[in-house]
Design brief:
Largest sheet: 4 strands, antiparallel
Order of helices and strands: EEEEEEHEEEEE
Oligomer: single chain
Length: about 140
Amino acid sequence: MKIRIINKSKHPLPEYATTQSAGVDLRANIDTPVVLAPLQRALIPTGLYIALPEGYEAQVRPRSGLAIKKGITVLNSPGTIDADYRGEICVILVNLSDTPFEITDGERIAQMVIARHEQAEWIECESLDATERGAGGFGHTGI
């Protein structure tokens, strides 16, 4: 798949780390470091702009290493970039740890996965088919 991208950052284009990687790392594109205090959130620019094909979205997800080692995650995870969005890709980061975290220019802050999606046609009705699960929700299996 080919995706048009404008790179206004000071960093190389995103690339897959391995041949079977699902996502590419997104890097902070900032002039000065940003310190996230515990429970603080910030919108971090990447300097990237993309044009996705119709029927696709880009999902912005946390990096597992930052999450487990530093308590840093993507607040609206996964963030969705729609195919018709043409603005800069920015990442909402939050510090869920008990210590401040400094984000520096070029730091890998999130990952982006390109995914196909469908749009539903809603058919209003009065009832739904019965299933074994039925309306059983959160924790309904007892496990």
